[in-house]
Amino acid sequence: MNFFSNVLKNASQSVLSGLIGAVGSFAASVIVARLLGVEGTATVGMALWLVFLTTILADLGIGGTVARFAAECPHDNEERAARHLAGYALGILVRAIAGGLLLTAAILWLYWGDIVSKYASSPAEGLVFCALVLVCFVVHMLYAFTFHFLRGIRAFGTISLYATIGSVLQIGGAIAGSLLYGANGAFAAYILFSLPTLLGLARVKLSRPTEPLPDKPTMHRYALSFYIATLFSPLLWVRADTLIVDQAIGAEAVGLFTAATTIAALLLQVCQMITNALLPNIVRAARDSEGGFEAASRTAVRLALSLLLPACLIAAAAAPEAIGTVFGPAFAGGQATAAILCLAGLGSALTLVVASVLSAADGNRALARNGAAGAVVTVVAGSALALSFGLIGAALGRLVAQAFMGLLNVRSANRLVERLVTWNWIVRIMLAGLIGAGVTQLIGWWLGSGLLAILASLAGGGLVYLTAAAMLLPLGTREREQLLPILHRLPSSLRSPASWLLRAGGRS
User: Fold this and answer.
1) CA 215 to CA 220: how far, in whole Å?
2) pLDDT at position 239, please?
3) Taken in order 378, 383, 388, 394, is the CA torsion positive or negative?
4) CA 480 – CA 474 distance, rounded (Å)
5) Mean pLDDT across the stretch 197-222?
6) Phi/psi at 479 (nearest 5 deg)?
7) Would the pLDDT of 88 be above 90?
8) How far is CA 119 from CA 37, 184, 332, 430, in A?
9) The pLDDT of residue 204
10) pLDDT value at 244 more than 90
11) Cα-Cα end-to-end distance for the chain
């Protein structure tokens, strides 16, 4: 199977698991919003923010290192060696979790006053809130490690299965928890999602390694650079505006902002799932053939961005109507905010996709350097704009910061791989995406309000985008040859339109 087919296969499985998980989280968010309103949504949103923050701070780059070096294990004993590698890393993870629990407890102690005054009706409820944050931290640390291990051995089918079970548990838990225990019960449902994936720990070999591990100093250096890069990545600083909104505007604004970020978070999760499939395949391409890294990187980045950039534009067109329709009239104040946050996803998508190339080439220093600059812009722009313009200002701050980081990381990646992403190509893909977004807006205006109208407008905009992209982004002969075997495996109902798009792309 060629690289292109491998990426499509792994990316489709990864996106499937991501969509399942994202839809589960989205459904749980809607359930919480409908049952508990703006106040309950704010409580759950702040709890998840605290877990996310402490997980990033305590991770130490362990999961990313496992995913990176598991992909380099020798052909003859690939999975066995990866399992021993994960077993070695798991011992380090346990110590990181112990330190992270102390860190989480310290943050909760410092934030205790705000928890009781804004997110709990009594000190007892605040203690339950803190206990759930601690439990969720441990579960999520183990979840992230297991996910990266399964990703490193390219077990994307297994990840999809676990995500399906977890989503069912999360949705059921959100309903039961919200009705029985309020916001704390709803928050507990987010813990349920991660539990099935922990079954993947059974594949990890805890015994003394019988297979030679990759060079430990090399792994430790990579883990450190990966950790520093993660600290300054959009995955962390894209959430900093939640704290800015909390401190600058108030708890009710956190509820509106959390709902408004849900659609953008859905896009970000899909982006992560696509990029999760890129790193192990790029590393394998570099391992298996001389000069394979550059060619694999260009193919992977072009494939990923051609899906993600237009998705952000089309989602931004539908987001204002979707917020009021899905979450309810109480959240209508977040319409413009939701659209701006989807546009901010353009910068996040650029960063996450090219970060796969930089990480595969051990270019985490560039990610850390660019992220540090982006972190400063996030805090300064986010705070200033939120204080001046409220929720819309906070969203604009994210847009400015993510665009800045995306451009910096594209520049760094182009220095590593010549013409990895050309501006001419980005302009063409953005133009096709804007055409799709315009059609989405037009269909939504024509059909009116309602969930079916939103889904129809998204589908129509997506189809128009594919047509426009086929015209504006011609495929090379090699790419068409790689796509033909995949096209022949499609269902007959999809084969004809796909063939037309392929021929259109070849003639452009």
Assistant:
1) 9
2) 65
3) positive
4) 10
5) 70
6) -65, -40
7) no
8) 13, 10, 22, 41
9) 73
10) no
11) 28
Task: Let me know how long the chain is.
Answer: 508
**DSSP class of 314:** H
Integer Cα distance of 222 and 228 in angstroms: 10
Hunting for tokens 């413009």 — which residue is that?
336
Range with the poorest average pLDDT among 124-128, 198-202, 364-368: 364-368
| Cβ-proximal residues to 287 (8 Å cutoff; 6+ apart), any chain | 71, 72
CB distance 293 to 360 below 8 Å: yes
Task: Name which of 7, 12, 14, 16 is nearest 302 in CA terms.
Answer: 7
Centre a 10 Å sphere on the Cβ of residue 197 and count the other Cβ atoms it contains. 25
> What would the pLDDT profile of 281-322 be if each residue is shown by its tens digit?
555 555 555 556 677 677 777 777 887 888 889 989 988 888
Got the DSSP string for 216-266?
HHHHHHHHHHHHHHHHTSHHHHTSHHHHHHHHHT-HHHHHHHHHHHHHHHH
What's the whole-number mean pLDDT along residues 474-485?
53
pLDDT the model gives residue 486: 47
Are the C-beta atoms of residues 71 and 278 closer than 8 Å to each other?
no
Distance CA 407, CA 424 (A): 14
pLDDT of residue 504: 45
Q: Can you tell me which residue has the tokens 């225990």?
A: 181
Gyration radius from the chain CA atoms: 22
- 398 in Cβ contact with 382 (< 8 Å): yes
CA distance 200 to 469: 39
The C-alpha atoms of residue 44 and residue 138 are separated, in whole angstroms, by: 17
Secondary structure percentages of the chain, helix, strand, coil, to 5:
90, 0, 10
The pair of three-digit structure tokens given for residue 234, joined into one six-digit string: 């959009």
Q: Tell which residue, 107, 408, 101, 417, has the closest CA to residue 229.
A: 408
Sign of CA dihedral 72, 74, 76, 77: negative
Question: What is the pLDDT of the chain when averaged over all its residues?
Answer: 77
Q: pLDDT tens digit string along 319-332?
A: 888 888 888 888 87
Q: In this predicted structure, what is the pLDDT of residue 505?
A: 44
SS3 489: coil
Placement of tokens 């704009």 in the chain: 385
